[in-house]
Amino acid sequence: MLKRTKRFIEKRKSINAGNYHTRHYTRTVHRALAIIGSLGEARSILDIGCNQGLTSRLLLERTQADQITGIELSRSTVDKDLLSDERFKLIEGDICELPLAGYYDAIIYGAVHHHIVRKHGLSEAVRVLQKIAESCRGKLFFETGHITEGGRWAWQRKLRQYFKTDEEHIYYLLRSIEEMIAGFEVIGRFRIHGVKRWLLCINMKGEAQLTNSCAPGGMNWDNFSDTDETEKYTRNFGSKKQRLLPIINEQNNGPVEFQKRKIGESVYFVKKALHSKTSLMQEYHIGRELMETWAVQPLSMPSSNTIIFPFIAGKKIVGDVQSFSIRERKLISGQITKIWDRCRIITLHWPKGIMTPIPDSAVLSQVVDLNPNNFLVEQYDGQPRVRVVDFEPRSNHYHWKNKLHIASMLIALKHHRIRAVGLGLSGFCEGVICLLKYQSKSTGERIRDGQPSLSSAIMAEIRSLVGKTVTSLIPSFYEE
């Protein structure tokens, strides 16, 4: 039976060994028609990963485009008739290495991103997306591989290292170019590998519009020099068990870079955003407005992707519970409950963004992630004092997650257990209600709020497990 299955797979691979574009001709045509329907009056178009050039050919035939530029790894892949069309220009090479000169009215970026993630990691894929967005002054059409497509693909396994659902993945990518986005919509769903990939039409502002507000009299780059004592760190991806890891050989695939910089007797903590400038700008403005003794305020924002903080030499509550005495744990848990009570009533001026549509009536506990990793304990006048860092806005429905965070800390500290159990049960129930509520929402709404479709989340788990199982039994089933 196993040999028969292997022969069947090898036969299918032989059949599928033809050009990818040929195998998905009908799908490519339908996707191109969806793009044409949303294109508008674009005159200059960039088609990244144009393959044979079917999409470019249809755009030349059915739109007002004067010039289409295609990017493909090999010239031999592209149709010869298209290459002879004076309205088409081919750039042969890798989008990761190619500079993009000038601006385009529209850019098509389909079925490329997930391969960059596989080959180079998430940070490189985000950098390329940002480079592309900066060259688009009209509409960016984006499609990528889905996590729900199964575990037989190397790129799918790579994506699973970072994200659990497709909504979470696309939300993260849009967040990384949020300052350049005017809006987005899902304009099509096209079947491949047993699922329907989403085609997004992203409306660009034309140029980045990001406010850079530095605190008057605060720190700026003039206070630093290359001779300062500096330690560089990155943060592992995700929200659970976060750690600061030393950067070795300047290689950093994390979303941020941290620097511990010492000038004389003063120590500062510099946070640099590698993926999302907007989130850092929002964190800066929220932190400056948050006048609480337990909140670590930023000192300055000397550039659009960098914040300077005072350095807090403290222990993380989530990882250092055993190092505190019974008396200290009681004091710490009491402070945490007071912080939680304040977060439930504090309202601020929320910096708005396309991916963070936060109402003015929202409170702090609904917006930021009160993750245990962001709670530090420092010694102040001989007593432990809890400080909270990282006020990056996440959404307007984080209240239930924060209940679970606070409950987990109180349980670990072994104090206020009754309240911890109540918060935990309440947070769990609210989370289930929130998840069910979003099942009736559109794909675009789920992406905007980073909320998963329950069916796709379950499918992702099942297909990933099946894919891993089959490829472990039949290695030839695994595809790069």
Structure described in brief:
With 480 residues, this protein is of the alpha+beta class.
**Cα Rg:** 25 Å
Name of the CATH homologous superfamily of the largest domain: Vaccinia Virus protein VP39
Helical amount: 25-40%
Number of strands: 16
Number of individual domains: 3
Fill in the CATH topology of the largest domain: Rossmann fold
Largest sheet: 7 strands, mixed
Keyphrases for this structure?
480 residues, alpha+beta, Rossmann fold, Phosphorylase Kinase, domain 1, 3 domains, seven-stranded mixed sheet, six-stranded antiparallel sheet, 16 strands, 38% helix, globular, disordered N terminus
Can you characterise this structure?
- Helices cover 38% and strands 21% of the residues.
- With 480 residues, the chain is an alpha+beta fold.
- It folds into 3 domains: 20-209 and 450-477, Vaccinia Virus protein VP39 (Rossmann fold, 3-Layer(aba) Sandwich); 221-310, Phosphorylase Kinase, domain 1, CATH 3.30.200; 315-438, no CATH class.
- A hairpin with a 2-residue loop joins strand 10 (256-263) and strand 11.
- Helix 11 (326-343) runs antiparallel to helix 13 (399-413).
Write the layout of secondary structure elements.
Layout: H1 2-15, H2 20-23, H3 25-39, E1 44-48, H4 54-62, E2 67-72, H5 80-83, E3 88-92, E4 104-110, H6 113-120, H7 122-134, E5 136-143, H8 154-160, H9 166-176, E6 181-192, E7 195-204, E8 229-235, E9 244-246, E10 256-263, E11 266-273, H10 277-289, E12 300-303, E13 306-310, E14 315-316, H11 326-343, H12 364-367, E15 375-380, E16 383-388, H13 399-413, H14 417-437, H15 443-449, H16 454-473
Parallel strand pairs: 1-2, 1-4, 2-3, 4-5
Antiparallel strand pairs: 5-7, 6-7, 8-9, 8-10, 10-11, 11-13, 12-13, 14-15, 15-16
